[in-house]
Design brief:
Order of helices and strands: HHEEEHEEHHEEEEEE
Strand content: 15-25%
Keywords: Hydrolase, Metal-binding, Nuclease, Nucleotide-binding, Nucleus, RNA-binding
Main location: nucleus
Oligomer: single chain
Number of helices: 5
InterPro entries: RAI1, RAI1-like_fam
Number of strands: 11
Strand order of the largest sheet: 4-5-3-7-6
GO cellular component, one term: cytosol
Distance between the termini: 44 Å
Largest sheet: 5 strands, mixed
Number of domains: 1
Shape: globular
Protein name: Decapping nuclease
Length: about 200
Amino acid sequence: RCREDYRYLKKLIYPLEQKKVHFDLNVGAEYLEVKEPPASLDSMLWWILRHKNEVFIDKKFTFDFLSWRGTLRKIMSSLFDSVLDWRIGIIRWKGCHFLSVFHTETELKIENEQTPIEKRMQYWGHKFEDYITSDKPPIIPSPKKIFSTLNKATLGRHILLYSCEIDACTMNSRYNEEEKQGTYVEVKITYAKHLLDLNTAS
């Protein structure tokens, strides 16, 4: 179900420079098989219907392309990645190109051949987000409850409207119906057997 509010926007409860934490990222892992939500355009189309007077003028859209940020990343990263391929369906309607990703055989093969540690790392990412955004994190994360934004950008003479998931915002951010001011945060985890493998400054 789509909503146009901030109920799923999380706030960091730890400072960005925090270095020492003790989180057990395996808690609850046995109860949930993490699967990323499908990259459907439904939520963006829902938003467009609510704002059609703003984005559909003179019987055409005010933008040229609609997609998820991940779709654009797939296209751009193919300049440097010779292993992964991609399959993207495009529908052109009323002057706009709607981009939707379909899994390729290569991607499915890589997913099916994931090692146990690679599968567990997917869960760790969701669990880590819960720890740093909640005083009382739930035992099982809820990866389906996501907060995303719609963004407009230009590429040459083309206008892009794309959506992306927002992991969290800083503690002093203020996002509500009356005020929208703050900083969004992208949360990433990495796996290493030793601290030196992380190649971070002490």
